[in-house]
Structures are given as structure tokens and as C-alpha cells.
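G., the chain you wanted modeled:
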Amino acid sequence: MKKKNEIEQDLDQKEFENELSRDLSSEYNRINVQQKQLEGKNVYVIAAMHFFSTLIFFEALYWVLKWNINYFTLGTTINFFSQLSPFVHVAILILSIHAIFVSRSAVDVFIDKWPF
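Predicted structure as C-alpha cells:
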């Protein structure tokens, strides 16, 4: 019985190591592909694309959310959104600047996380 448990533990350990190795190799391949795609491109243009795509994505998302909530509450939340708006725009601006440093826009993250 004890030997059987040791064998199961060894198999579980090997399976874990193989899974970890696969994850690391796929991450390494993804990073290599991303670096090859950016090779020879203007860094500032790519940073501007990340900035503006993140900015437009979140501004459109906020506008749709605000419009729908105001529509369904018959305009009773207009004052709430007028006071909330500056804070949301500052947060969106911070996310857009963060997208430059991460070299990844919110649209890229959204597409990667999309289950379909």
C-alpha cells in the first residue's frame, strides 16, 4: 500500500513537472513571437496605438454603460454620472498610460480573455 502511494506521488510529481514545462515553453514561444512581430517597427507608433486603442475602448465602454443606465433609470442618474465622470476619465487615462508601459492594449487583453 505504501509503495502504491509513493508511485502515485511520483506520477503526480512528473505530471506537474510536464505541465509546468509545457506552460513555460508556450509562454516562451508567445514572447518570441511578440518580439519578432515588433522587430523593425517604430516603437512610438506602437505605443501610440496601445494608448489610443485603450483610451477609445474604455471611453466607448463607459459611454455605453452610462447611456444604458441613464436610459433605464429614466434619467435619474444623470447627476451621479456628472459627478463620477472626472474620476472615470482620470482612471481611463491612467489605464491608457499603463498600456504604453506594458506594451499591451486593453483590446489585446480583452481578445485574449474572450472565451470564443
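The helical segments are 2-38, 43-72, 78-102, 106-113.

Shout if anything looks off.
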